[in-house]
From TrEMBL:
<keyword id="KW-1133">Transmembrane helix</keyword>
<dbReference type="InterPro" id="IPR000620">
    <property type="entry name" value="EamA_dom"/>
</dbReference>
<feature type="transmembrane region" description="Helical">
    <location>
        <begin position="153"/>
        <end position="174"/>
    </location>
</feature>
<feature type="transmembrane region" description="Helical">
    <location>
        <begin position="124"/>
        <end position="141"/>
    </location>
</feature>
<feature type="transmembrane region" description="Helical">
    <location>
        <begin position="98"/>
        <end position="117"/>
    </location>
</feature>
<protein>
    <submittedName>
        <fullName>DMT family transporter</fullName>
    </submittedName>
</protein>
<dbReference type="InterPro" id="IPR037185">
    <property type="entry name" value="EmrE-like"/>
</dbReference>
<dbReference type="Pfam" id="PF00892">
    <property type="entry name" value="EamA"/>
</dbReference>
<keyword id="KW-0472">Membrane</keyword>
<keyword id="KW-0812">Transmembrane</keyword>
<feature type="transmembrane region" description="Helical">
    <location>
        <begin position="270"/>
        <end position="289"/>
    </location>
</feature>
<feature type="transmembrane region" description="Helical">
    <location>
        <begin position="39"/>
        <end position="58"/>
    </location>
</feature>
<feature type="transmembrane region" description="Helical">
    <location>
        <begin position="247"/>
        <end position="264"/>
    </location>
</feature>
<feature type="transmembrane region" description="Helical">
    <location>
        <begin position="215"/>
        <end position="235"/>
    </location>
</feature>
<dbReference type="GO" id="GO:0016020">
    <property type="term" value="C:membrane"/>
</dbReference>
<feature type="transmembrane region" description="Helical">
    <location>
        <begin position="186"/>
        <end position="209"/>
    </location>
</feature>
<feature type="transmembrane region" description="Helical">
    <location>
        <begin position="70"/>
        <end position="92"/>
    </location>
</feature>
């Protein structure tokens, strides 16, 4: 699937929209909680990928997987960490604390891409990363202060830190493999991540208490909230730079707040609205400036009119 830069941006926006439904969906679960939610979500993601991958890439997709490629396994482990660490962190500290910790993802991604790939980070992207990080921190700063006195808050933050770290490594691995001309399809590594997350959380999820409606909602999460958008995110990362992918991924926070507002009657505070405006402004500004830069490069330098000298 070949994408232009603009189409890749819109695809990542759609990805964050699908990622963001997890919060509002889990509000409607009856009995399932914590590790059981993580287990069933990863399990249904694994089942979905076992169906989607051969239907999309043919029955030989599993034989064609790059089982000997380090990049393939690194990406799979990163997906497993991201699938698992977020839910574990939520069991230890507040949602706000987790999200503030995750907001450093774009900065980590930019630094890794600069060190290991040699990407030049445009000043506009650095500015957007800083502004978006401030917006996320402002939205949930009060919640972090409440959790500061909790002994579990530090451990929860350290677990949450695994999510942006794994994401930064994952996007960097994807782009490094592309930059070095390696013909490696990292989309199947999603399956490795789902399998690892399922196996890791299985002992912690027992005994199962999920009801039939719970399982239907968790199956929806496995397919629509993880399997499909994660495939699209890998495809987008073939076109977008790693820091840009991470920056766009922050939209998940904004969409998640809107879903909770519309679907669970959780009205956002003024701090959330102001912080969300900063995040969206940073993303829009970064994309608009990038689009103008690409237009100028395609059109070339503006010709300068030569006026005749007054002495002629």
């Amino acid at each position: 699937m070949k994408l232009t830069h603009t189409k890749a941006v819109f695809m990542m926006v759609a990805v964050t929209l699908m990622w963001s439904v997890a919060g509002v969906v889990t509000r409607h679960l009856q009995n399932a909680h914590s590790f059981e939610v993580t287990f069933w979500r990863s399990f249904f993601t694994m089942v979905s990928l076992l169906v989607i991958l051969p239907a999309w890439q043919g029955r030989g997709v599993f034989r064609a997987m790059q089982w000997t490629s380090p990049a393939f396994w690194i990406s799979g482990v990163c997906w497993s960490v991201m699938f698992t660490a977020y839910m574990v962190a939520l069991t230890l500290t507040s949602v706000g604390n987790v999200l503030v910790t995750m907001s450093i993802g774009p900065l980590l991604t930019a630094l890794l891409a600069r060190v290991f790939i040699g990407h030049r980070i445009a000043p506009r992207t650095w500015g957007a990363i800083a502004l978006a990080g401030l917006g996320i921190a402002y939205m949930f700063g009060s919640q972090v202060n409440v959790a500061a006195g909790n002994d579990g808050a530090l451990l929860g933050s350290l677990v949450a830190l695994c999510v942006p770290m794994a994401a930064a490594v994952n996007w960097t691995v994807v782009q490094r493999s592309q930059a070095h001309g390696e013909k490696i399809d990292l989309v199947p590594s999603l399956l490795v991540g789902a399998v690892l997350s399922t196996l890791l959380t299985l002992p912690l999820a027992y005994p199962f208490v999920a009801t039939g409606p719970d399982l239907r909602l968790l199956a929806f999460l496995g397919l629509v909230q993880l399997a499909i958008p994660c495939i699209f995110s890998v495809i987008s990362a073939r076109v977008l730079k790693a820091p840009e992918v991470a920056l766009l991924a922050l939209l998940e926070v904004i969409f998640g707040i809107l879903w909770a507002w519309l679907g669970a009657n959780e009205v956002p505070s003024a701090e959330v609205l102001i912080g969300g405006a900063l995040v969206i402004g940073a993303l829009v500004g970064n994309e608009v400036l990038g689009w103008r830069s690409r237009v100028r490069q395609r059109c070339g330098p503006t010709p300068v009119a030569i006026r005749p000298s007054s002495l002629e």
